[in-house]
Amino acid sequence: MKKLVLTGAAGRLGSYLREPMSRMCDELVSTDLAQDIGKLYDGERYVKADLASLDAMIDLLQGADMVVHFGAYGDEAPFETILGPNIIGAYNIWEAAWRNGVRRVVYASSIHAVGMHPKTDFIGTDVRHRPDTFYGLAKCFAEDLASLYWDKRQVESVCMRILSCAQVGNPRAIGTWLSYDDLIKLVQRAIDTPVTGFAVVYGVSDNDRVPVDNAKASFLGYRPRDNAEQFAEKIFAEAGPLDHQDPGNMCHGGPFAAVPLGDSGLAVLKVVDDTKKT
């Protein structure tokens, strides 16, 4: 491809996508709110831009073949905090894509769009929205926006409902882990699949205890390889018996299903910051 755009390039997940994406195109435009993102890869340039500015997104997406949209406020927060980057920002990405003739938006959605479903339900990609937070609600909005822009304006979208893309550190992650290698594979398949229309796929590795069903997204050719079962014995021993009445243990959204609206879910998860350094 001639040009790909990556939003959220300064974030933890974005840091692992920059190098492989730079090898898929002549020009990779990485963007975020940070002043810089360190050393750039061959063919990559960095543009500081605000998702909440439609004009900035229109300029950014000029001439792009596709945009991989990972930019967002990445945790539960009061609605006013979520509104700008996650909701208005999503509209600006799809609107800018349409105005510029961009073929496809590859979107970092989340399990939190369906996080209040019981974890004992093996849910598919067509399960109804059931957000667990304002953060999850914004993911529902963006997925519906993607569907609308496909139906009315023929902008393709692949909405990747990412489960737990971080180091395995709790019992839930034994089923929900998405390794960085599998994340890269998922994004590559979302980009290089010839035709997608509007599609939803779960971002999860090949875990023995995976709680979601990707059968209806098999056309993407995403075949994960990593398995969190290697961590199970140690993690379960350290955690001890879990409270079966705690929504954080019983719902797909984990701690996000248990925290009060507006309160951080990541604070409970204690995610390790292993951002890739260039």
Automatic annotation (TrEMBL):
Its EC number is 1.1.1.203. It comes from the Bacteria. Signal peptide: none annotated. This is Uronate dehydrogenase. The keyword NAD applies. The keyword Protein biosynthesis does not apply. One of its GO terms (molecular function) is uronate dehydrogenase activity. It comes from Albidovulum aquaemixtae. Belongs to the NAD(P)-dependent epimerase/dehydratase family. Pfam families: Epimerase. Coiled coil: none annotated. Residues 5-162 form the NAD-dependent epimerase/dehydratase domain. It is an enzyme of class 1 (oxidoreductase). Keywords: NAD, Oxidoreductase. PANTHER family: 4-EPIMERASE, PUTATIVE (AFU_ORTHOLOGUE AFUA_7G00360)-RELATED, NUCLEOSIDE-DIPHOSPHATE-SUGAR EPIMERASE. SUPFAM superfamilies: NAD(P)-binding Rossmann-fold domains.
